[in-house]
Amino acid sequence: MTLITDVRLRRILDSRGNPTVEADVVTESGGFGRAAAPSGASTGEYEAIERPPTEAIAAAREHAVPRLIGEAYAGNQREVDAILRAADGTDDFSEIGANSAVAISMAAAKAGADVLGAPLFQHLGGAFRGDNFPIPLGNVVGGGEHAADATDIQEFLAAPIGAPSVGDAVFANAAVHAAVSDLLTERDVPCGKGDEGAWAPSIDDGEAFELVDEAVSLVEDEVGFEISFGLDVAGAELYDAGSGTYEYSDTSRTTDEQIEYIADLVREYDLAYVEDPLDENDYEAFADLTDEVGDRTLVCGDDLFVTNTDRLADGIDVGAANSILIKPNQIGTLTDAFDAIELATAHGYDSVVSHRSGETEDATIAHLAVATDVPFIKTGAVGGERTAKLNELIRIADDAT
Ligand SMILES: O=C(O)[C@@H](CO)OP(=O)(O)O
Ligand SMILES: [Mg+2]
């Protein structure tokens, strides 16, 4: 019944107005799945390769589609993804593009779920998945590669760790986002939004910490549960390999100074989460920081691990970080993303499923996060392509309980 009978690929718009790949997968019994690839701006050096959509589509039509139609079963995700890998023939999807691969992989999963008549999270997670829901990390202030003339640190993320439900958590993040705007208005700081819908004021990182801390406290008092916050430093974007230093607008830090700076921030603001605090090649520095503050916060590898089990295994060996960011398009298929989560879990690393800065209305990651029982999902706080996932989480919770 889930035999794939058609795969259609097209270019659609992403949230930055750039083209991206959308895939439709149709099965013998009329099952249908549609999914679209997201796209990063602060991409990791070791990510699978995103090709220009026109090229990715042409290559996938030539190499992958004929191997799927009449051959693969959408209900058998590992088979579909193995065929995508074999059809591509490279380690990094540079032939058919990770954008074509991930769109087809996710569309096949949705077609498989459609045939079964099950919601996607149920199809992916099975009957014995846990009954936890991920806490959304909401980007409320940001800069880096996502906005010009704003903070050096890429993302300040509200983390409603005490929220009694997904819905409460989602609304709390939106309230923090609104509170930040009010505080900026009070201070006469004009400001627009970055790529992920976070406020992108022209203030320095120190001011942003004060601002987010205050916004979080205000909302915490209102809602009556604990809200912390966290960061995506996107350290690789700040790191200058030539000088071996982290270059901020107003200062420069050696690796040791960067470790101390981040550790101090974790302690001072009781940060729940710190993503990519260090360069993507520096496992050792990640391990040192994890030694220092890993018992009180999540030290998460995004550009460090790129959802890649080999890189994660290297990190596990040396104790670099204690959690991994999971972005299916960084590695190319849902199978690879699942394998990364499984390896992480087996070694006591938490997984955080994540959007990209360039997104579409596709809500697959909401289902992936629930299916795999991860503790956190990072998918923005406001904006249509972000609320597509957040609202889907609310629906899933409503559906499952
Ligand atoms: O660095 C990140 O974690 C992501 C998403 O927030 O950004 P991008 O998609 O630009 O890599
Ligand atoms: Mg990141």
UniProtKB/TrEMBL annotation:
It comes from the Archaea. Residues 4-124 form the Enolase N-terminal domain. SUPFAM superfamilies: Enolase C-terminal domain-like, Enolase N-terminal domain-like. Its EC number is 4.2.1.11. Pathway: Carbohydrate degradation; glycolysis; pyruvate from D-glyceraldehyde 3-phosphate: step 4/5. The active site is at residues 196, 327. Its cofactor is Mg(2+). Substrate binds at residues 146, 155, 275, 302, 354-357, 378. Residues 130-400 form the Enolase C-terminal TIM barrel domain. NCBIfam families: eno (TIGR01060). Catalyzes the reversible conversion of 2-phosphoglycerate (2-PG) into phosphoenolpyruvate (PEP). It is essential for the degradation of carbohydrates via glycolysis. Belongs to the enolase family. This is Enolase. The lineage of its organism: Archaea, Methanobacteriati, Methanobacteriota, Stenosarchaea group, Halobacteria. The gene is eno.
